[in-house]
Amino acid sequence: MTHLSEKLTNAMLELDKVRMNVQFHTLLRKYRLKSEFETLSEFGLALEKKGFLYEESIFSHWQKGTRVPTR
């Protein structure tokens, strides 16, 4: 792989991360509200009942778009 090719590949990967971030936080908010979870706490409790344990603050980061879940 040439240096230019490597730079272009890295740039495309970064762009994909940005796109995923924008899409995720928008969709999270949309479907949380559509599911009638008025608060992030209610959302977290519902996930906890299904066996998914997260600190409540992570939902805020996800919804703001400052973080994206990796799994």
Describe this protein's structure.
With 71 residues, this protein is an all-alpha fold. Helix content is 72%, strand content 0%. It has 3 helices and no strands. The longest helix has 32 residues, at 3-34. It starts with a helix and ends in a 7-residue tail after the last helix. The mean pLDDT is 83.
Describe the structure using short key phrases:
single chain; 72% helix; 3 helices; 71 residues; elongated; mainly alpha
- What Rg do the Cα atoms give? 16 Å
- Sketch the topology as an H/E string, one letter per element: HHH
Major sheet description: none
Strand content: under 5%
Q: What is the total tally of β strands?
A: 0
Mean pLDDT over the full residue set: 83
Q: Note the total helix count.
A: 3
Overall shape: elongated
Structural class from helices and strands?
A: mainly alpha
- Cα(first) to Cα(last) distance is 29 Å
* Sequence stretches where pLDDT stays below 50 over 5 or more residues: none
Helix content: over 70%
